[in-house]
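Example record

One chain of 465 residues, shown exactly as stored in the release files.
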Amino acid sequence: MPKVSGLLLASERRAIAGLAGLYASRMLGLFMVLPVLALYADELSGSTPLLIGLALGGYGLTQAVLQIPFGLLSDRVGRKPVIAFGLCLFMLGSLVAAQADSIFGIILGRCLQGSGAVAAAIMALLADQTREAVRTVAMATIGLSIGVAFGVAMVLGPLVSMHAGLSGVFWLTAGLALIGLVVLWKLVPSAPRRVQHRDVGLDRRQLASVFRRRDLWRLDASIFLLHLLLMAIFVAVPLRLVDAGVEVSRHGGVYLSVMAVAFVIMVPLVIVAEKRRRMKLMCLSAVAAITLSLLGLGLVGGLNGLLAWLMVFFTAFNLLEATLPSMLSKLAPAGAKGTAMGIYSTGQFLGAFLGGVLGGWISQEWGLDAVLFSCALLGLGWFFVMTGMSPPRHLSSEIVVLDKRYQDDSLSVLTDRFSRIAGVEDVMVVPSECLAYLKVDHEYLDQQALAELIGLAKGEDACRV
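Predicted structure tokens for this chain:
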């Protein structure tokens, strides 16, 4: 069997760049409204704090409901048609919101934006376009694009709204969707749809078993609460900045400075978590920091205090955004990472929806400070839930491309052969795909035995994902 190169092919580079840009532009459009909607609510008829919160988080409900069906639909009718349809829905929602003069129009537009739930289809198309050997690079690029989109949205939203109002933000997102359609059809190369991507895509047959795994519940709850708290505080934070004397025109600069400092602090913490195997410590520290920052935001009134606590919040937020998926990858069963990620993402979007509604309702009934104190109380409960988490073992997911001479072996025989190799902790063999999905501990992995089993020359490694 020929060696699979880890270097990106030209077609793979095009696909990764195009899909990362498409994903980022879509997330940019969803996030840009967060720092500005509460500030422009007075211009919208029928506006109440509860409805503002619903407008902020409304996209999360339709995302959560439709992302799995859209992913499964893409398996049937093709990736590009489903992604194009989702982008059209996103653009329609942006146009509805751009022309709305009431909060109800904004809510409708945001829900339509979220109904273009094409994240799973984009990831499946990315898997179609890339080999297993370079899948890690492709996935990391998408993840990086999401983080960059969030940071840019925090800065761009206030800047655009300052010159073009709230409607200008939505007109821009409609334009981004249109550009996304052009990128999809002109820049992303076509590729044959493959049978299954268990490392990326969702498998309906695994849903029940993965959902029942208690070791994944805490991670699903964590991403749910993280995005619930994020949406809830944006009901209050923009108004708190105004109360502290920050003009709306300067909000973009405030978020830029806060996010830049938070990113610089976050990077070494991620390295400590991964390289020194301190995942649980970093996770607990981040949850504690979020809880303290929410309490601090509720107590302080001066600008310097607000900026300091916002920096703490976003440092911890970014740290969890980076480490929670890594922990999920380590804990998910072999061959079920894509399914586990689908459940995880659904929790994220539900959290965004409920966070907006909860933040708006609390603000309407008890005021802005109550939003922050209530969020701090949720953070405290979250911290105690996470203390019971076992430190995740540092296992890696690998996909082994089987030599053709093993395709005729029975499932049980192949599974037993892989299981007996030192360092292989979990195995799923799929002879019909000529693939084996492994969870391995590289500290103890017998590379030579693995190479011999799959018929590769001595010293060659499996295709890592």
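Notes: The CA atoms of residues 83 and 275 lie 36 Å apart.
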